[in-house]
Amino acid sequence: MKCDNALDVVYQTEETVSLWTRLNLAFHIIFCGSCAARLQTYEAARSLLRTNFFPPSPDFTDTIMSRIYREAADAETEDERAFEIGGFSTKGWIIAGLVMLVSLATVFFGKDFVSVARDQGSSFLLPLGLITGMAITGYGALFIGSHLKELSERFKL
């Protein structure tokens, strides 16, 4: 028996292999060290797969769900305290918005801006104006969305 045939026989199920082929395989394995090593590795892998190779995973669902509920309760109390403690205050948002507005407005007075605007013309100014408008609009939307409750209470809406 050749080594290729021996390995094919090893990988077949025991029911499909005749007694004569099994004896031939046993005789081949006695004299071929490489096939004996492959057979030993194959049998070790099969025995690992027959037994419970992967241990059962621990059940963390109760622990995780209790932490989620606890964090949700803590978040609700933190949201209520955010206006009292000063987490993201309206004054901080307005100062950051003014800094952003001033920095976007002063970009037009830069030395590099003048040379690029002269070379590119309106094909440069149109995208810059769109991006400036989107940045200011997005910041305003975030400010109003995050302070809607406080603004409605302040302006009695």
Structure overview:
- This protein has 157 residues and is mainly alpha-helical.
- It has 2 domains: 3-50, no CATH class; 75-154, no CATH class.
- The chain has helices at 3-11, 19-31, 33-50, 61-85, 90-105, 111-120, 122-146, 148-154.
- Helix 1 crosses helix 2 and helix 5 (90-105) packs antiparallel against helix 7.
- It is elongated and about 95 Å long.
The assigned structural class equals mainly alpha
Q: Supply the number of structural domains.
A: 2
Low-confidence stretches at least 5 residues in length (pLDDT < 50)?
none
Shape estimate: elongated
Strand content: under 5%
Number of E strands: 0
Mean pLDDT: 78
Roughly how many Å is the radius of gyration? 37 Å
Task: Give a short summary of the structure.
With about 160 residues, the chain is mainly alpha-helical. About 80% of the residues lie in helices and about 0% in strands.
